[in-house]
Amino acid sequence: MFPNLRRDVGFPFLGSVALFGLFVGSGLLYTSLQGGRASGNLITAMFIDAIMVVGIQIYIGNTGVFSFGHIGFGAIAGYTFALFAIDPVDKATRIADAPWGLAEVGTGPVLAAVIAVVVTLVIAAIIGIGLARSGAQSGAVAATVITLALLFVTHELARSWVRLTGGERAGLAFGIGDTLDSRLPIYLALFASILAARLFAQSRAGRLSKAAREDDLAARAMGINPIVQQTIALLLSVVVVAVASSLRVYEVGSVLPGLFFFDYTLLTLVMLVVGGRNSVTGSILGVAVITAAREVARRLGSEGYEFFGIGLDDAPLDWLFREGLPRVVLGLAMVGFMIWRSDGLLSDWEMDNWLWRTFRDNPKMPDLPGPLEAVSSSELQASDVVVAFGGFRALDGASMAATGDEIIGLIGPNGAGKTTLVNVITGMVPPTSGSVSLAGQDLTGAPSFKIARAGLVRTFQNLRLFGLLSVRENVEIPALVAQQHRSARKLPSIDELVAAAGLWEHRDRRASELDYGNSRRLELARAAALGPQFLLLDEPTSGMSDSESLQMIEQVRRMASLVGAGVLVIDHDLNFITGICDRIYCLDQGAVIAAGTPEQIQADPQVRAAYLGVSAPV
Amino acid sequence: MTELIQNLIDGLGRGSIYALLALGVAVIFGVMHLLNFAHGELITVSGYVAYAMFNQGWSWYLVAPLIVVVAIIASLLIERVAFSLVRGASDFTLVLTSFGVHFLVSAMFVMFVGARVKTFSEPGWIADTIAIGPINVEVFDLVVIGVTIVTLLLTVAILQKTMFGLALRAAAADFDTARLMGIDSNRVIRGAFALSGALAGIAGIFWLMRAGNTAPSSGIDPMLKGVLAALIGGLGSMRGAVLGGLALGVAEVVLRSQLPGEAAALTEGVVFALIALLFIFRPQGIISVATAERV
């Protein structure tokens, strides 16, 4: 579950303790300096907001899927909690004829919170299936709509189902003296949620989910089915949100539809994005910053210059110091941060990652391991593949075969169908007819993550790295998939692969910071880390100089032999192709027009005709 | 049967307003990939201007064109101070920017004008009905449907017959290529916001006529209707947006009259739930726009 116990459990635990201590400590310091009941209430509310925001961060931060709906889950949890926790005597005046005898139930707050979590989880699981279904096809927009719809459906229910919720006027309220009187449950929940968020982000599921956040298509090509991890993230985040919502209702002492609606959605989202949605530390920082800004704005709005301890008769800023100021500040913070710094103050910085990098023993660059025996029996076969887009046939009966100890080239003029063939083999484009198989196993039309797990892994013409993740993490992610889904072949370690790619000194840098050549090498190493039977490389030298592409020959050979994989490579650079390949297929207009050794291909009149555009002398 | 026809006309009247709003959302999504959650604020702004002018003694005939002008100006202004600064950013940034603008505008009205609802009188003919055979039709619905048809025809004419329309359609199909072909992206985007503002203004006239008031939070409802209708239709498809608006209007009216007793109050909730279901089973909306990613 955790790739490296010290890095992924030990340090996050220490970091969570530190983060919790700093946050709670500064809150308590403020109340003791400020004194008074109001400052205590402000800080209590801030702690609860922090739990809520960390809960939302678990989903948005790890999946990159934007959700308006978490406050909708909050409403479900908050009302469920209130229905069970409030004493029947207090319910009798508001919802005497509630359905299912809920007016007579009074379980006390702890059991009520448990029930709230369970009910919200069940609903989240159903919605999660919907999100997974739609997200798979069109990503963010559909998810936004579904979550927005959730927020509004719960709001409508809270407003209109008066028999159950007390509607907009009465709502549900605890009796006097029945509300939260100690901060202990808040502290426990806050620490637990920070720790859970950090542990999840470091766990195997969290890492795979972040890979999909960075690039969904590349993640699938690495054998990840992000739906699984995204659903885990959703459920975990909903548990935290449900706990936070129960605490919020308990602390406020009542619940009305407006408690969990647009205003609270805005507040929590602003807190999340100001601090940095990809970081737990950032979320907590955002909660603190926004709480402070809002409090200053509130007091400026109500006290005006008194806030600074000066009273002016003719105050020039009176137009600004008004009641609505906190809302304006929130709106400005949202728009301003999106324009100025959309990744927030901390982006993806985490305290424990920083501690880990500072205090770990620096490993030495590993020696390169010997080559791994290729599985020559694994034969990749594509037969009579046809892909028709409307009337246009991008592939028109193309066939090819390769064994696991070969390096095969795929050449042809632009539009010949080379990339389409690789897309069909790796499950990214469904063939109109024809079949693809690996070692006798039929893979035609299988989803791309299954094909990757079966042992066919590709790179992309337009680089698709996991940009925000480090170089080492880019290689680690397919290695995690390999541990679970690939055979027991002993693959080189992550560090060995990083070193073999010549990226050792860059291993802690973000992938997005690499230059072009290094990015290409990283993409190759990432593909190799899955331990595939075949590496399918789509133009690995595009945009490279002659000397760089010659180096790439070495690089491809080394990586393929390290993991014992065959290679299928598309390229335009004929020096590269003839220098590296055992055999070459030449495609033109969707069909194979020639196949053979580099020498045979170079001498083939049809190939020359296809490339030069003149008809071959017969 | 008569009830059904009556519902249908009522729903089309409502849906026409939604269609205009949705078309405005779709136009902007087409050029900027921005799902504009601030679209409803154009109606809030025009509502306050209308309220001020009614206090000056203006009549609806004078205020109506003013509303359109104000909506266009507000749309261009919002583009200038906010959206132009996040062009080309990720979907996440764009959605949150428009969400922030939505809140900012309403918060400014709370702060500078006050949270109270401002009422003004509806036009005298709003409740008039005329009988066509056995069916009683609201004059208002007929006017809305009529104006919407004219507006849509004009929009189609602009999109099909003018250079700007061609540029806009090209940009909606493939913004980067359109730029490479020499289309001035600033002009296209500003034009799109002006067109979107004009459509919101025309929808706003009817929205405000029926509401008879304006408040800082007035923008939420029209924004939701516009955004949802555009989504139902399939984002980016202008035809889809119009169909989505009409479908949403008819669905609301039919559900409200058909749902039993208590549940009728939940019409909005049911509509949202249906939309969520639609997206679970058909995430691309009614009309799908090809957005296949190149690999």
Verbal overview:
The complex is a heterodimer of chains A (618) and B (295). Chain A is an alpha/beta fold and 618 residues long. Chain A is built from 24 helices and twelve strands. In chain A, the strands form three sheets. In chain A, strands 8-9-10-5-11-12 form a six-stranded mixed β-sheet, with helices on both faces. A four-stranded antiparallel β-sheet of chain A has the order 4-3-6-7, covered by helices on one side. In chain A, strands 1-2 form a two-stranded antiparallel sheet. The N and C termini of chain A lie far apart (64 Å). With 295 residues, chain B is mainly alpha-helical. Chain B is 70% helix and 4% strand. Chain B contains eleven helices and four strands, in the order ααααβββααααβααα. In chain B, the strands form two sheets. Chain B has a two-stranded antiparallel sheet. In chain B, strand 2 and strand 3 form a beta hairpin. Chain B starts with a helix and ends in a 14-residue tail after the last helix. In chain B, 49% of the residues are buried. The interface between A and B is large, with 51 and 48 residues.
Offer a concise description of the structure.
The complex is a heterodimer of chains A (618) and B (295). By secondary structure, chain A is α/β, with parallel strands linked by helices. Chain A has helices at residues 5-34, 37-63, 70-85, 88-92, 109-138, 140-160, 162-165, 184-202, 204-214, 216-221, 226-252, 262-275, 280-303, 325-340, 351-359, 418-425, 448-454, 471-485, 494-500, 516-528, 546-563, 574-580, 598-603, 605-612; strands at residues 172-173, 254-255, 379-389, 392-403, 407-411, 433-438, 441-442, 456-458, 534-538, 566-570, 583-588, 591-596.
